[in-house]
Prior knowledge:
This is Regulatory protein. InterPro entries: P-loop_NTPase (IPR027417). The protein has one domain (about 40-195): Rossmann fold, CATH 3.40.50. Helices cover about 40% and strands about 15% of the residues. It is built from nine helices and five strands, in the order H-E-H-E-H-H-H-E-H-E-H-E-H-H. The chain has helices spanning about 20-25, 45-55, 70-85, 90-100, 105-115, 135-150, 170, 180-185, 190-195, and strands at about 35-40, 60-65, 125-130, 155-160, 175-180. The termini are far apart.
Amino acid sequence: MLIPSKLSRPVRLDHTVVRERLLAKLSGANNFRLALITSPAGYGKTTLISQWAAGKNDIGWYSLDEGDNQQERFASYLIAAVQQATNGHCAICDTMAQKRQYASLTSLFAQLFIELAEWHSPLYLVIDDYHLITNPVIHESMRFFIRHQPENLTLVVLSRNLPQLGIANLRVRDQLLEIGSQQLAFTHQEAKQFF
């Protein structure tokens, strides 16, 4: 059984500072394979991406916790987030994940990509709190995911530190959108708005 709140983006954004300069940068996220948002706690990573995601339909959200280091649990939630973004388009993969009928995470992801080959609209998958993942098998599987994901899919990863996702190659090929703590820090005007 999946916990619905792990698949929901935060929606209480009434009293937050709208980060126009960062939202403008994120508006081109669909041109990148990976959007990586890294900073220590309290910089507003989740709030920023929640603001950016507001109004988007083709988006799946997966909030991690320590228990997601279990491969089967990680797979179930990740596929559920994709299902959320595609309105249930990946039924075979979803069944495989729920019944644990796959040899490895990479074989499950390969099936996912086969099903997503028929999905032609831009698609976004947000994974929040990736720093909680310590399982090397999941890291390796996510490197496979990033290497082979469809062109119309953008993975958005939020983490307190630089994740083990093999991003150097993406950086060289200009397929990585990065926002770090220096960019997330409030400008003077944003600080005045906040306080």
